[in-house]
Design a protein that fits this description.
Blueprint (H helix, E strand, L loop, with lengths): L46 H12 L17 E6 L14 H7 L7 E3 L10 E3 L7 E3 L4 E5 L14 H10 L11 H5 L23 E3 L4 E5 L7 H4 L28 E6 L3 E6 L17 E6 L3 H10 L7 E3 L6 H9 L1 H6 E14 L7 H10 L2 H6 L7 E3 L27 H13 L7 E7 L2 H15 L4 E7 L4 H5 L9 E6 L10 H5 L21 H12 L3 H16 L4 E12 L4 E2 L3 E2 L4 E2 L5 E2 L1
Parallel strand pairs: 1-10, 1-11, 14-15, 14-16
Antiparallel strand pairs: 2-3, 4-5, 5-7, 6-7, 8-9, 9-10, 12-16, 12-17, 13-17, 18-21, 19-20
Helix pairs in contact: 6-7, 9-11, 15-16
Amino acid sequence: MQLPHPKPSATVPPVLPAPVRARTDPPPGTPFPAGRPPTGGTTRPGIGFVLVAALALGACQDDGGGRELVPHDGGTLHVVIGGALAHLDPQRVYAVTEANVSRLLTRTLTTFRSVPGAAASEVVGDLATDAGRPSERNQVWDFTLKDDVRWEDGTPVTCADVKYGIQRSFAPQFDDGAKYPGQYLQPNPKPYTGPFTTGGDSAGLRSVECLTSQSIRFHLKQPVGDFGYAVALSVFAPVPATKDTGEAYDRRPYSNGPYKIESATAQELVLTRNPFWHRGTDTVRGAHPDRVVVTWRNDTTAVTASLIDSDGAWADTIAIDRDAAPNFVQQIINDPVLAGRAVIGSTGGVRYFALNTRTLPDLACRQALTYALNKRRLRASLGGFVVGEFATTMLAPQLKSHRAFDLYGSAANPDGDPERALRLLQQAAATGRPCPARIRLAYPNSSDVARAISTVVESYQRIGVEVVRRPYPSQSYYSTGIGDPANGNDMMWAGWVPDWPNGSAVIPPQFDGRNLPRDGSTGNTDYANFNDPRINAMIDEALAESNLERQYRLWGALDEAIQAQAVSIPVFYIKALRMAGANVRNGFIHPQFGQPDLCALYLS
């Protein structure tokens, strides 16, 4: 998943108070855990126990130390994110932060439970009465809409709204959203290009059938055993055709969730209650605050300092997509009160580098870059072990489809193997196809990532490869930065949180070359431009397998086969350490977003 938002009109001062002055860095040798990627420092014995114990005690206590058994309704929850949202149009939402915020506005046929732990990976009916009823060997799926689910003007949500929303995703202008409708649904006899073109199929998308106003049937082009998970994504969300404003819908989508948009400016998004939403039809969203104000600030150090102090509105604030600044982590984990306000957990995601098979076509060259990377220094620059364990696979250990393997020996030697890399470079040169002496490395332009990229530059200096830095604006990095297959970069900073807990939400969107869009498109997620007929056939075999245990094994085998081609360099399995203000309650890392679940939060 990735991230975009409305291009707001007016500019207003931020609602939150100005961040307090940042603290100075701790003395040398202090363990730094936090940030997007981790660091590899050491730590004193007992720190992990202090942090876990404080979290267990602090997350659900009131200021007097007593248990809060019933969530409080009311108040304004402030949410800080690192950069402006690029999209809120459900057919364009695909980044994790967008998806987390969007769930407050947009309901889908199914959705993930809003609870901590493994149960959060379970989908339940949302707009639909259940998680779907498959037939014809998982190639036909039926859903029934709940009664009395309404839009923000009081009109009911119907099958026609669901069908129209899905149809929008086929329009050329929606090429930066999730691709699952086009990949899973049976195609029309003539390629369908969305509801906006004239002279198209008057019946619309024939694979989405409205049996009644409340009953919907999907016809898939191949069996998909976990389609009930796919329709939890907002790309399958309804949109009322009469309210579709085209490009402007991205700035002000119509709501059927607990909140609607009151305003969107250059600094913030303000959500207020949708009067036609009620808990009787929604068993997932707590929707406890009266208002939610989302503000973007890129200064992680200042935000962390303000959340620690928790003065004024900062007491009602949580940072959801940026970890606590590394220089504060020691203070947080050693202070039981602060540790009790930290929201920490594994995300199920993987931080990695994609290697472009177009510009780096030789396997030996890609393997040399894989062996040479010093993962320990890279992780240390971002906070150390707290941000995650070293990764050797693209399927995280939390997934049942995970297979443990380490083809490049980086688990045992996270400092890298420059000697092995140099031998591979020499072998390539001896064949008359030398590896490039200079590579272009793309990354989002933020201070924490730039610091990590410096360690990559040093890694490749050891083997005589020069790194040309290519920073892109963070807001559009995934969509228009590296989302164009013709971006020309050799190596790209990336991260992936599965759309649902299976290899089918990791392998196909990132490595099925048949889904590569044309050059000049945006929203590509196969950053390596990888297209291997053998891998594609293995993907088809895994998707068609109805026995989940066998399917899990197939995805694990695919992960290993892809890693043998060195098209990505997994760096670490992402953990999160997010900070909340003193009044914020019920924070936990939701595996669907790798962030605190906004649906669950309330104020003390």
